[in-house]
User: Which sequence fits this backbone?
């Protein structure tokens, strides 16, 4: 088990307390972006790094059949306990391993605030696996270039690649996907929509 997985297992009850806030946040984001990208017109979604299941919950509420994956068993326990729709399937994964699905299994493959925490080679592997299991789009909900002090401190403590990610995300994705659109969905967040 990686140190990040242990960390997220330990702090999962704290994240769980923000579940309703996160559901509200993702609901606003999906509504806000619907004019440029209407996610509700698709049938299935894979949420990679689903955490407490807030985004999975919102995707299910807009009509998608959802599978959520996470390497943290603590986060998955929070997700199973908190989601409104018990029809969402949650699965445990091991970081760095191939996603447990055949090619083109889901219309949309989405990941929220995961990519920035990975080392560059792990990010590239994640992008390729997300692309492999997607029929239509890969979407990263992650940071844009507008950094805040609190975010900077938290990301430094987590030890991910946040500072590099926000500089290279578009180029990294452009090396893998034919088309990459970046849409700011919040002050410090963007959707990187890849086809």
Assistant:
């Amino acid at each position: 088990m990686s140190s990040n997985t242990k960390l997220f297992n330990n702090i999962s009850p704290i994240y769980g307390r923000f579940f309703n806030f996160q559901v509200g946040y993702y609901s606003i984001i999906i509504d806000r972006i619907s004019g440029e990208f209407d996610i509700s017109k698709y049938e299935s979604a894979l949420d990679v790094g689903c955490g407490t299941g807030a985004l999975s919950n919102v995707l299910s509420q807009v009509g998608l059949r959802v599978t959520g994956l996470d390497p943290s068993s603590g986060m998955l326990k929070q997700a199973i306990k908190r989601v409104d729709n018990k029809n969402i399937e949650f699965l445990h994964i091991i970081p760095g391993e191939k996603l447990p699905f055949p090619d083109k299994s889901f219309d949309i493959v989405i990941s929220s605030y995961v990519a920035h925490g990975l080392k560059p080679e792990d990010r590239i592997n994640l992008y390729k696996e997300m692309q492999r299991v997607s029929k239509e789009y890969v979407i990263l909900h992650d940071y844009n270039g507008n950094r805040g002090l609190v975010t900077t401190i938290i990301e430094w403590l987590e030890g991910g690649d946040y500072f590099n990610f926000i500089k290279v995300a578009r180029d990294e994705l452009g090396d893998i996907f034919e088309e990459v659109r970046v849409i700011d969905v919040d002050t410090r967040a963007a959707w990187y929509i890849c086809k």
